[in-house]
UniProtKB/TrEMBL annotation:
An individual GO BP term: transposition
Membrane-spanning ranges: none
Pfam family membership, one: DDE_Tnp_IS240
Gene3D superfamilies given in the database record: Ribonuclease H-like superfamily/Ribonuclease H
Keyword tRNA processing: no
Family matches, as PROSITE patterns: INTEGRASE
GO MF annotations, alphabetized: DNA binding
Annotated function: Involved in the transposition of the insertion sequence.
Protein name, as recorded: Integrase core domain protein
Annotated ranges, domain Integrase catalytic: 63-224
Length: 232
């Protein structure tokens, strides 16, 4: 990741972005915290940092997390952007480890199929996927199984449609919901996608999906390709 053109040291940028994503605060709250540490910047700058850097770190992390179980749970939750509801698709394994996520303007077969294909690309082939009784998600898994059959995969992904079995991911949604509440809504789809990707990433760090033993910020900086920072 390049910090060329930034007017602040990269450690300041990464610290500010990490703490914004990890803890329940607004940009103005973080502006005050940074000022207490002798760093004067405004909330608009913090917003730009999140939009510019977070998506890059999240994309780099998708293939670096530890292997997950082959039994998955998938569901979507609602997020408000510019006063309208959009859909955050999420998947975790049976142990609660995050597999993948995707923000979508639509909740239909095409969106579900795209999400499943994305999750398979980063995590390999699951043995089964637990979903609720959503028709769109059912159609998405069927579309993926049809594609897999075309590629010569002899065993389809087992689909389990039991809402009560999906309680584990319903509980996992709560961390995301709790974290976005202080943000007071998103102004654009792109900014929402970037911030949510970062929140999911720090949640995966919290779950120990990368390098257990290192402090959370150290892991975040490493995923950003910054191994030369001083962690005091």
């Amino acid at each position: 990741m390049s910090f060329k053109g930034a007017h602040f040291p990269k450690e300041v940028i990464l610290y500010a972005v990490f703490f914004y994503l990890r803890y329940g605060m607004s940009y103005r709250d973080l502006e005050e915290i940074m000022a207490e540490r002798g760093v004067k910047l405004d909330h608009a700058t913090l917003n730009r940092w999140v939009s510019r850097y977070v998506g890059l770190v999240a994309d780099a992390s998708r293939y670096k997390k530890r292997p997950a179980d082959r039994s998955w749970c998938m569901d979507e939750t609602y997020v408000k952007v510019k006063g309208e509801w959009v859909y955050l698709y999420r998947a975790i394994d049976k142990h609660g480890k995050t597999l993948d996520f995707m923000l979508s303007k639509r909740r239909n077969k095409a969106a579900a199929t795209k999400f499943f294909a994305r999750a398979l690309g980063a995590n390999g082939l699951p043995r089964k996927i637990v979903i609720d009784k959503s028709g769109a998600n059912t159609a998405g898994i069927k579309a993926i199984n049809k594609m897999l059959k075309g590629f010569g995969c002899p065993v389809p992904i087992e689909m389990v449609r039991r809402k009560y079995l999906n309680n584990i991911i319903e509980q996992d949604h709560r961390f995301i919901k709790r974290r976005i509440r202080p943000m007071l809504g998103f102004k654009s789809f792109d900014s929402a996608a970037s911030a949510l990707a970062g929140i999911e990433l720090v949640n995966m760090i919290r779950k120990g999906q990368f390098t257990p033993g290192l402090r959370p910020f150290q892991q975040f900086a490493q995923l950003a390709g910054q191994t030369d920072l001083q962690f005091n």
